[in-house]
Amino acid sequence: MRPINVFEYEALAQERLHPAVWDYYSDGANDTVTLRENRAAFERIRLRPRVLVDVTSIDMATTLLGSPVAMPICIAPSAIHGAACEDGECATARAAGALGTLMAASTESTRTMEEIAQAATGPLWFQLYFSSHTRAHAERLIRRAEVAGYRAIALTVDSSRWGQKERHARSDATFDWPLTGNFIRDPLPSAIDGAADGAAITWNDVDWLRSITSLPLVLKGILTAEDASLCAERGIDGVLVSNHGGRQLDTVAATIDALPEVAEAVAGRCEVYLDGGVRRGTDVLKALALGARAVFVGRAVLWGLSVAGAEGAQHVLELLRDELATAMALAGRPTLASIDGSVVQRPLRR
Amino acid sequence: MRPINVFEYEALAQERLHPAVWDYYSDGANDTVTLRENRAAFERIRLRPRVLVDVTSIDMATTLLGSPVAMPICIAPSAIHGAACEDGECATARAAGALGTLMAASTESTRTMEEIAQAATGPLWFQLYFSSHTRAHAERLIRRAEVAGYRAIALTVDSSRWGQKERHARSDATFDWPLTGNFIRDPLPSAIDGAADGAAITWNDVDWLRSITSLPLVLKGILTAEDASLCAERGIDGVLVSNHGGRQLDTVAATIDALPEVAEAVAGRCEVYLDGGVRRGTDVLKALALGARAVFVGRAVLWGLSVAGAEGAQHVLELLRDELATAMALAGRPTLASIDGSVVQRPLRR
Amino acid sequence: MRPINVFEYEALAQERLHPAVWDYYSDGANDTVTLRENRAAFERIRLRPRVLVDVTSIDMATTLLGSPVAMPICIAPSAIHGAACEDGECATARAAGALGTLMAASTESTRTMEEIAQAATGPLWFQLYFSSHTRAHAERLIRRAEVAGYRAIALTVDSSRWGQKERHARSDATFDWPLTGNFIRDPLPSAIDGAADGAAITWNDVDWLRSITSLPLVLKGILTAEDASLCAERGIDGVLVSNHGGRQLDTVAATIDALPEVAEAVAGRCEVYLDGGVRRGTDVLKALALGARAVFVGRAVLWGLSVAGAEGAQHVLELLRDELATAMALAGRPTLASIDGSVVQRPLRR
Amino acid sequence: MRPINVFEYEALAQERLHPAVWDYYSDGANDTVTLRENRAAFERIRLRPRVLVDVTSIDMATTLLGSPVAMPICIAPSAIHGAACEDGECATARAAGALGTLMAASTESTRTMEEIAQAATGPLWFQLYFSSHTRAHAERLIRRAEVAGYRAIALTVDSSRWGQKERHARSDATFDWPLTGNFIRDPLPSAIDGAADGAAITWNDVDWLRSITSLPLVLKGILTAEDASLCAERGIDGVLVSNHGGRQLDTVAATIDALPEVAEAVAGRCEVYLDGGVRRGTDVLKALALGARAVFVGRAVLWGLSVAGAEGAQHVLELLRDELATAMALAGRPTLASIDGSVVQRPLRR
């Protein structure tokens, strides 16, 4: 039977994926405290529904840095979709396009960014990993992204080192991982192994990046008011509250718990998004209520992709969209503008 | 052996009911966070018992919108009692009457409201579902309710869409559901499928409803101070704090947690009731202490009905009544008037 | 092997007791929320140990209403010790005497209060149940207690009705319960069945009791500041913070959580004690820190009694005494006077 | 396969150790509330990572009472390493030296302090147990420590009695425990059995100790602001926040929960360290953020020692060091000076 929620997709994906791929996709860093907290924190927040509001028509269309999207649910960058389905990120992009939403393609995509752009009918962002020592390589990637029509650069800033995913590290399954498409034309400098060392960058690198492209810049991996303020002060266009799906520094806060301080610090000076743990339409509603303009979904889309390719990814997005529509209707908030902090009641810190 | 509490009735009901019916009655929306929270929230509240008070005589008689009842425990509207026992809502009504209490009959009752009224010896309310597009149909139902002697209209306001009950949706059991009695004489307009679209209404519809009947009006499904204030301002007679048994918007607060803000906002301007998770006499006492005039019991009565028809439903009500009497005695509050906020200690949010 | 803590005695007692007796002794009211909370609340409290204090000599001797005891750990009244061991309360009294501590004998003891007094070498209190309708009977019991040398009357005030112990009620085991010794000479008036109706009394009855005896009066079952204040104002000599071992009104607070408000309200005007959930020396220390002059132990002593008669009960008391000595030493509080509120850190309400 | 974290070492150690030794090493006092809380409290604290900081170079070198160490992770004193591996504390000392860190050798080491000093290449502290009645014996040990080059005396102050480790007490395994090396040359006075009576001392003994040696003095076992203030006032050089690994007074706070009040009370007047529950690099980071200059690791090192001798102990230290480096990098705190209270968010008590 066709899955009726994201958790059913997850269970099916575990059955169908090669164990090594399942372990890679699903694991979190170390003791997976943050991985689990991303979900638990959503469940701890209570919705406060208003009634007798006209919810005949639910309008969830918005824009991200000027690009219109049909819903505030976008696809988070994640690596190597080719391990989930043959078409890799091209399938994912078709799913995003079918729903009229945005996809952020990973530097480490199986398919090249040009192939993805050709498959996409919705807006695309290019997620960038680079380190202080690979500026030239990064610039080549950005030039390609500009040419291919990507609308923004989403720079990952939480990966100066790679978190240890221990179940993944323990996985004795062998799997012939597909190559990173973008690196075929632009191989990483041989002296630099990004996958081992991480993508260590500083504000200098961000300033450099800002100087070489006119694409809007989103920083992915902001979790504190302090860094959010710096982003706003330095003219960053968007802040993506993310803990890398619980895969980097274990025991950082759930993103939904970090979101309020980020949104408050930014105070409207740039757009704020969230990823991490989104599995239900009510999660999306909570994130919007606490200051996000949109959420990004990573693993959930991978589960759809693993189960039924583009169609599965599309269905996952449809499920989330429909659940969000139901949640907005039942909460009495038929438009995004009507969603404010009064929709939620947060627990005391924990 | 005869059950000695509601939980034993629940276990027996699960054994005896057709699986599809069990799933339908017992399920909650999505991840059932609210379904479970309805119970957990009651358990988190502590009672503060006074001693050496004269509790020889426990007086729990009260009135609901002027109708006297022998106890502040009434029967919540729930659909299709005919799936639980042959006599359906007529059996339930007899149970309510035997205890001298009030029953709110559902629009979606198996038996017609006229049959229920004939069986009832206690006061009745008529629970109404309608949408902006079915006013004419609703008016016909209300005229029938007036004629049949119903004392108030309990309008459900939390169901602009139907929440997804996923275990129920997954249930592969086939069951020949009985028809909705009220719709035999007054079929729903064929273009409108209320069960699919939900009962979307606005304050305009409430105003219309108020204009066409002089019956008192209760709004069922209020969970916030904001909506409670609107109710009071617009002359609504009663507010039923309800999350639809956790079946509509998942992750809304437990009703007992929402009750205080509703009661405070209403400030005595209309009556306040609660349903959701009531399984013990101590639950009733806590609800009264936090501002409810009475509680409504849905599933617990269905379990009694499923196990032993009218007699079972009656016994469930007797158990709750006796437990409430014991709780009032042991708490040193022999009258409803003596029950105030000092009876309970609430946890910090959560 | 000989048990090394109370929990091992409990496990052995469960093995050795007739199932009906085990169910009766061990059960709590309804959902056993309070029964479990009595333990959980102790575990939530943190000790704050001081170091480098001279703890060579631990002095835990004190007085209860003037009667010297070797330790602030006394035996709570509980019914029908004859179901645990042949000698019943005489065995218990010998255990108390061996430890130089006080025993409160229950109205519902298997052995008569005179037999118990003959066996005892430590001070005795007489726990009294009576109702407004059995004053004459109560007076006869009190006269006997005075003659037999009991030092105080501990009047149970939380039992206007009997809480429903549901596992006990469900127990299909048959057991030939021994008779209540005290009632052989003074049978309960036949029209009154105290066990069924409870012991409903009011302050009038307390005033009457005070008027007919010069024995000190302890009220057992106080859980609120309001009632504690009344006790102090009316010249009650001692207040025993008790929820009847979780056997009366379910979901009342753990006694250790209720103790602070009681102690604060009393403000030294009468003695304050606690029973409920005491299983460790650290529990005793926490109760003393939060305002108790002594704790009373019920089930723990019954487990000892069940396993090895007087010797078992004595060993349980020794274990608690030794654990308390260790806790006082390790907390740097070698005397009772040195134990104050700074020994503990309480969690926020829950 | 080689373990990749401390928990894998723990599991292997349990397999390889004699059950009696495993029970002895792993157990906590009584109900092990504090033992478990030591871990749980670390997991409850959230890290607040800063990004875009230059973390190319992580510098974790520091000093302890003037002795340089390569990292703020040292080896806590623990007894009888000879039960874990043939070379006992000599192996442990080699591991410490290999990592350039400090080891605190226990009075109850299997190897003599002189043998340990000969094996060590890093700085050593001598952990001292003594009681008021064994000053002469203690002085002989201190003189030996001075001669052997130990840099400080770490006096255990939380052991006036021995906590009851109940699984250990119940362990029926027989094991031929190795002797305490230091006592071969300096046997304990026969009338005094330190292991039975504990090491009861007072501030007088500390003053005496201070008077007989010029070695810096660290007090191990401080858990309160009150005692921390006394330490600072009396010129103690270092305070080790410790609950003896949950082996002494059960239900005291986790050390990471006690650390803030100690650090605040000391206010920089002496050095502050922590042991208890450290299993992850993030734990170390949290302790540093809350005021510790370094952490001490006991059981984790024993697990390494048990699995692979000196090499295993060294690997455990390497794992913790590397995890700390990753945590510092990912938290954007590349130096110890950059680690302050803003790195963590603590839950409300509890």
Largest interface: A-D, 38 and 32 residues
SSE run of chain A: HHHEEEEHEHEHEHHHHEHEHEHEHE
CATH class label of chain A: Alpha Beta
CATH H-tier superfamily of chain A? Aldolase class I
CA-based gyration radius of chain A:
19 Å
Q: What's the tally of helices of chain A? A: 14
Main β-sheet, spatial strand arrangement of chain A: 4-11-10-9-8-7-6-5
Compute the number of strand runs of chain A.
12
Oligomer: homotetramer
Task: Tell me the span between the first and last alpha carbons of chain A.
Answer: 38 Å
Low-confidence stretches of chain A: none
Number of domains of chain A: 1
Helical residues, percent of chain A? 40-55%
List keywords for this structure.
homotetramer; about 350 residues; alpha/beta; TIM Barrel
